[in-house]
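re: that chain from earlier
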Amino acid sequence: MTRESSTLQWLEPGMPMPPAHTALSSPSSLRGLVAAGHELTPQRLQEAYAQGIFPWFTEGQPVLWWSPDPRMVLRTAEFRLHDSLRKTLRQWQRQARLEVRLDSAFGRVIRHCAQAPRAGQHGTWIVPEMIEAYEALHAQGLVHSVETWLDGELVGGLYAVSMGCAIFGESMFALRSDASKVALAALVAFARVHDMPWIDCQQNTRHLASLGAREMARADFLLGVYREVQRPAPVWEFRSIYWDALC
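^ sequence. v structure.
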């Protein structure tokens, strides 16, 4: 079922989020748009992610809520650890230069992500309002940062929403070559150890496809979300032995 008209629901505070399957199907620039409004609170974010919906907007726009069809998903069993990244990991580990941390510098990570250039984009969608909302959700233990530290310096990372055993990837950054990929590999290793089957990547990009992500029909994705958010959440900590899960 899709919404064939161009009518978009405006969300007032307290109104329920429309179901993801009611997203606009046309025009192409608005395909996947579920609703718009001005409310961006931790409660609204939890409601949205539990239904496979995420916010994406730029400065000056209302809060726009999306659920694209198809959805780009990285199944953790299908992650491609390319030889070049494997070599970097082994070199940094052998030299005792690498440390992966979880949630030790969330504020720095999300701000680095806001500053990271994006191909074909001007400015950032991680606006101050978005940072404030995700920091509040982080304080509730529902958003996590995976950080690559090299020689004691933060050089890359990512942040992701996690509810139960569902992981919704948001953004990443790198100040050193491969640093963001190392963070993603660490997240995959963590997910494999805890039987978390996929990481939501939202939109299809060549970079994500090269790492093993592929598209999934929205209906199948929503079934997965419903199942995984109800499972008990793991303790978010990273141990060096987790790297063995990538072998």
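The first strand starts at residue 9 and ends at 11.
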